[in-house]
Write a structure and sequence with these properties.
The chain contains 33 helices and 26 strands. With 834 residues, the protein is α/β, with parallel strands linked by helices. The protein folds into 5 domains: 196 residues, no CATH class; 181 residues, Tandem AAA-ATPase domain (Rossmann fold); 166 residues, Rossmann fold (3-Layer(aba) Sandwich), CATH 3.40.50; 56 residues, no CATH class; 73 residues, no CATH class. The longest helix has 25 residues.
């Protein structure tokens, strides 16, 4: 096209890049997108960011029709392969428009595409000088604090349109309530005045949606409790009926009930109500791969088999055919849906249901980006933990519910997140206000709120001693962590290499608390496997109860599986490598077969699965995130559970694992502040990484103190045997993510070699030296405890410092049992100081 031109990066910036590092200082300074520069208002900063993006990104811009549609452009982004319609009426015109989501939600009345058009016009003024107001009249949707339908009256037949406007619009040209009710009469009259009159699609959609709300409410309210029970072929709890009505009335809802309260049946009930009232005929369910067939089973169960259900799977062409099928319910995994949307542009349905949506909390992932491109009239989003780590995750989740609910993001950050001068998060504020804003969309109930006769739940942490081989490796990694912490305290900075090594070491410390086998797959030093097998033997021998066993590490579950096989105990074994179709059979076997007594699983099975046939859960290790622990427990502690629940957490004593138990509470407090009406403001005092480093230091200090106290009370008659380096040391490192389970890693994870390798038998420390070290550590621990108190320090000084009035000399007088004791103490101190 004659007018097509690409907007290129700023020439000075591009030239500076070409001249190397020295020239970069002359380039235009880039604005940060996480913190606002001094001297700028938030509005100015956000507009400047979009202007910056327009200068740096490449867009293909072309007028739609320079003569018949002046001011209208098509902007093509070659990177995303998406096209946008831009209407430009002037620099500050309220009638500017872009079809992108940022323009619709930012409330800035601009976006990078519109700013790119401005740049294009500056460079092509002689070719395209016109951007005046068109002569025709139009009705459009204004995107401001509230979305409002407005009218812009042009010069053609102005007087007639002004008289018409007085009947349907207020003095600000905004559609009145009467105008909404009689909107199509308005359109008919407007077209009779002038056939050039326009009404844009987004304005019509907004009017239809608003009118439909009242009609849908009336239809949903006609369903009695008995009608809902009949519709779903089961007797619902009162709070479940409330959830169904809430979601069906809202049209866009987040059901965030605590795990085990039956979010699935509420979503199915919402779908059935919308289909029974004629508001929906097609339902698309997105869920993790492991839950596809469980969803199919639940739909068939609660609809009495009257609804056809199709699980979409297979190759791309087969999936495309399946989407076009007539089945009212279609189920697809997040991964498959993401691939299909990238290939075809989008998916369309009447109602979309997203299960375990917290998995999409990072909106920069391909799956999350793709899911936002699903076009649906209604949505039901399910998550027992919509907020796990950061408040920003809740914003991301709510975008799937309603993209305007918490928008714009920059305003969300300014209003609810306390940041430092570089954009780092210090804490959160006004959390209860967020709860109020979410009320039209979010419904959340806890087990304590619904007053059900739920069985009792007993949680118990079982502290287990670990082997000396485990402790040696644990302490070697701990020493590396301590050195990195010291570096952090000195420099307040860690390189990416240091941060990676830190996370590797923390992961290794957690792994070795279970077994050395997880690290090297060669040695086998552990105590948890024997303990869990003793518990299983007792459970199986004591009655008909069933047990679920969880571990984050797939290799740990291998060890338990081997022991179960030795004992000929029937069990189901779920991990990341099990196909989704097979998982349904495993759950059915565990539920229906009385001989299947154990369900062994990695965290691949901690979400969505219904394992309430069991009444006992054993956690071989504790996850970082308390929400993940509750997800595990929620597999058995849920509606329909008849037995009392027992939760056993196996914890390695005097290790990093033990110290983790009481330290990581910030995430739970934040969750309660937003969703459960808890603390309104929570401060971290530092950025996320700084907070983690502070918590680690606290954990390390507490662990060292506990070990010192324990060591002071132990009398060793002879040294413990120590394995050789070949048996205990780990291999050289590869990259490993400490937050991922074995299912999410490669099958052969390797860990960093401890800086201080385990001593070989030929270099082991003699027994008397061990005793001296223990005495020295005990002495230092007591000394540190004394010096922490000014009063005790003064008392110590008065006790050991003597002043001779005759000679005037001052000396330190410490009573000792004999000369050898003094030499032993000085030797220990020398070793420690060196």
């Amino acid at each position: 096209m004659a007018y097509t031109k690409r907007v290129k990066p700023n020439k000075k910036t591009a030239a500076a890049k070409g001249r190397g590092k020295k020239a970069t200082t002359k380039a235009k300074k880039m604005l940060s997108n996480v913190w606002r520069p001094e001297g700028m208002t938030t509005h100015q900063w956000q507009v400047a960011l979009r202007q910056q993006a327009a200068e740096s990104e490449h867009f293909a811009i072309a007028p739609v029709d320079a003569y018949n549609a002046p001011g209208e452009f098509e902007v093509n982004n070659p990177d995303s392969r998406r096209k946008y319609k831009v209407v430009y009426r002037g620099a500050d015109s309220e009638w500017n428009f872009c079809s992108c989501l940022d323009f619709k939600t930012s409330r800035l009345h601009t976006c990078k595409h519109l700013e790119a058009v401005k740049l294009w016009l500056q460079k092509n003024r002689r070719y395209y000088p016109r951007h005046s107001q068109p002569s025709y009249t139009s009705i459009y949707l204004h995107y401001g604090e509230q979305r409002e339908v407005r009218i812009r009256i042009g010069e053609d037949n102005r007087e007639a349109f002004e008289r018409l406007s007085a009947d349907y619009f207020d003095r600000h040209c905004t559609l009145t309530a009467y105008g909404y009710e009689h909107f199509f009469e308005l359109l008919s009259e407007a077209r009779a005045i002038d056939d050039t009159f326009r009404c844009y699609d987004d304005a019509i959609d907004h009017v239809l949606a608003r009118r439909e709300v009242r009609l849908r409410h009336e239809a949903v309210d006609k369903f009695s409790d008995a009608d809902l029970d009949t519709l779903l072929h089961t007797r619902l709890y009162p709070y479940q009926r409330e959830g169904i009505r809430f979601a069906a009335r809202s049209g866009h809802a987040l059901i965030a009930d605590e795990m085990g309260l039956g979010k699935t049946i509420q979503a199915i009930g919402t779908a059935e109500v919308l289909m029974a009232t004629g508001y929906a005929s097609q339902v698309l369910i997105l869920c993790p791969t492991s839950l596809k067939y469980q969803w199919k089973r639940e739909i068939e169960r609660f609809t009495g088999g009257k609804r056809a259900v199709l699980v979409i799977e297979g190759g791309p062409l087969k999936r495309k055919e399946q989407y076009a099928g007539s089945e009212p319910y279609k189920i697809v995994s997040y991964n498959s849906a993401s691939n299909d949307i990238k290939a075809w542009g989008s998916l369309s349905t009447d109602l979309v249901i997203m299960d375990e949506v917290q998995r999409l909390k990072n909106w920069k992932t391909q799956i999350s980006i793709s899911a936002r491109r699903i076009r649906s009239r209604y949505s039901v989003i399910l998550s027992g933990t919509p907020l796990e780590n950061k408040l920003e995750e809740l914003y991301s989740v709510m975008e799937f519910v309603d993209q305007y609910c918490l928008s714009p993001y920059y305003d969300f950050r300014e209003r609810y997140i306390v940041s430092d001068d570089k954009g780092g998060t210090l804490g959160y504020k006004n959390l209860n206000e967020i709860g109020q804003r979410l009320k039209p969309y979010l419904i959340r109930r806890r087990k304590v709120d619904v007053k059900l006769q739920m069985p009792e739940r007993m949680d118990q942490n079982i502290l287990l001693p670990i082997t000396q081989e485990q402790m040696d490796i644990h302490d070697d990694y701990k020493a590396t962590v301590s050195r990195i912490l010291q570096k952090w305290e000195r420099l307040h900075f860690l390189s990416e290499k240091d941060r990676l090594r830190l996370m590797q070491c923390l992961a290794a410390m957690r792994m070795v608390c279970d077994s050395t086998y997880i690290l090297d797959q060669k040695t086998r030093f552990d105590t948890k496997v024997d303990e869990v097998m003793n518990m299983v033997d007792t459970i199986i021998g004591g009655g008909d109860e069933k047990v679920v066993i969880f571990s984050q590490w797939e290799r740990m579950t291998r060890l338990v599986a081997a022991e179960l096989n030795k004992r000929d105990i029937r069990f189901e074994y779920l991990h990341g490598g099990v196909p989704s179709a097979r998982r349904k059979d495993m759950v059915d076997n565990f539920t229906d077969d009385p001989d299947s007594r154990v369900f062994l699983s990695t965290d691949a099975g901690c979400t969505g699965l219904n394992l309430q046939a069991a009444s006992i859960i054993i956690n071989l290790d504790l996850p970082w995130n308390p929400a993940v622990l509750e997800q595990r427990i929620g597999r058995i502690y849920r509606i329909g559970q008849q037995r009392n629940i027992q939760v056993y957490n196996l914890v390695a004593a005097q290790t990093f694992e033990e110290q983790m138990i009481g330290k990581l509470r910030f995430k739970s407090s934040m969750f309660e502040g937003v969703l459960d009406g808890g603390e309104d403001t929570i401060f971290r005092q530092e950025s996320t990484f700084k907070q983690m480093m502070g918590t680690l230091k606290e954990i390390m200090d507490d662990e060292a103190e506990d070990k010192a106290v324990a060591a002071a009370t132990i009398v060793q008659d002879e040294p413990e045997p120590v394995a050789s380096p070949d048996e205990t040391s780990a291999v050289e490192p590869d990259v490993i993510n400490a937050d991922l389970s074995d299912d999410q890693m490669s099958d052969e994870p390797t860990m960093p070699t401890p800086t201080n390798p385990t001593p070989s038998p030929t270099t082991s420390v003699p027994a008397d030296a061990n005793q001296l070290v223990q005495q020295g550590v005990s002495f230092l621990s007591g000394l540190v405890a004394t010096l922490k108190s000014p009063e005790k320090t003064a008392e110590l000084v008065n006790t050991i410092v003597k002043h001779d009035k005759v000679t005037g000399k001052t000396s330190i007088n410490i009573p000792v049992p004999d000369k050898d004791s003094v030499q032993s103490l000085l030797t220990v101190l020398g070793k420690l100081l060196s």
